């Protein structure tokens, strides 16, 4: 696969994943789709906006850069081809790696600690001491009275963020390699359209 086509595929995938992360983070702010819960009733990891900032905006940048690197070069097929855009994509992909790592670390921590919920008339992180073992014991999930279904809500959305950020890290790493090859070798598509 030529570097331009690969960059375009990676870029479109990153843009899609970033939108998924932004949506998941927005849903975490409204447990069960209700806005009645105050700032004090939502977990710190939700407020760190890992899905919105790390997996979202910080991935949108390398995604768009990769899509642009997959287009025709700034000078067409001659001159530098796509080398300039590929070089920009290298720096954007490194930035995206940081965003993906941030999203993964915050989301992983949120899964390990569990949500903030009301149990035994106390708002706290009641599953913190279980070190994530509550994930395998669904009978404990119903112990959180308020917000209703918060454990299922958080586990589902943070698991989605973990999966998406892992894919983002993988794709940003792939684009780093692809763009580096593109800087040194150019885009093979310019040869495809050349007369024989």
TrEMBL record:
Transmembrane segments: 9-30, 42-69, 90-113, 150-171
Organism: Camelus dromedarius
Database matches in InterPro entries: L6_membrane
Subcellular locations according to the entry: Membrane
Keywords: Membrane, Transmembrane, Transmembrane helix
Protein name (database record): Transmembrane 4 L6 family member 5
Membrane topology designation: Multi-pass membrane protein
Family of the protein in this entry: Belongs to the L6 tetraspanin family.
